[in-house]
Amino acid sequence: xxxxxxxxxxxxxxxxxxxxxxxxxxxxxxxxxxxxxxxxxxxxxxxxxxxxxxxxxxxxxxxxxxxxxxxxxxxxxxxxxxxxxxxxxxxxxxxxxxxxxxxxxxxxxxxxxxxxxxxxxxxxxxxxxxxxxxxxxxxxxxxxxxxxxxxxxxxxxxxxxxxxxxxxxxxxxxxxxxxxxxxxxxxxxxxxxxxxxxxxxxxxxxxxxxxxxxxxxxxxxxxxxxxxxxxxxxxxxxxxxxxxxxxxxxxxxxxxxxxxxxxxxxxxxxxxxxxxxxxxxxxxxxxxxxxxxxxxxxxxxxxxxxxxxxxxxxxxxxxxxxxxxxxxxxxxxxxxxxxxxxxxxxxxxxxxxxxxxx
Length: 358
Hints:
13 helices, globular, mainly alpha, two-stranded antiparallel ribbon, 358 residues
């Protein structure tokens, strides 16, 4: 049942179809890569693990999971105002991220089919999972009288080229942080069902297992390519991608803290927990991880969130463009400085960490 409540103030391509969010440094990315280089990779050092993961993908544990039930068939007029708008934005960002994964994995599966059958089938089956996720999220948006035109998004989005090595870093972290985001929300709402404002959250427990399996796949690929992980450059890139993923999530979520408050979560506490768990998980494959136990890490991110709030206020002001530029410049410089200082913080050597545990 579609309620008759006035739709949030979103720009539309046509009635009920939202114009995709403007691309910024904080919006989900669409990737492409060097498919020939990917096809030439030698996976034999870890082929047994990759074949075991392939069997899990074939089993398709969630093939009957993403089915809307009777709880969806109601009016959602009680989710209104800012909460409604922020919730639609949450669904859009999640849908866009899942759909970008679908496009990348599908193309990899198609390009690698005749050259690396094991990898090709893994990518095709992961694209199946991501398509389900994106479709389920887009259908959820329609409960709020809004959806995305995924065909339009395919043709009109900017694609970022990454070498295979960087695709693995980025997608591994995307899948693992997705797992911790979904499972943390699920566990919170399982303990506090009074905050479960919409039924999609009931699906997060099984859903996040797809994310976890996808992350394990990229873990296995990187372990099959030890040169990606065992030199000085790998340590620098590990820090770069960890910081990029953590800072993007933190800045996005704090900016939308009202949404998390609507489901009973403190956005900052939630992000700190997700960052720590994802960082710990990344320590199983990356040569170094970030020192996210250091209070300075969040203090500097908080300065960036304050700067971003000021930038948003300047953007809304009636000042001339040139005045706005001069007002924004020191805030941009501050953000770059804070992120640079975070990148230069002494990292945690995972080899020493694992040695201490053993």
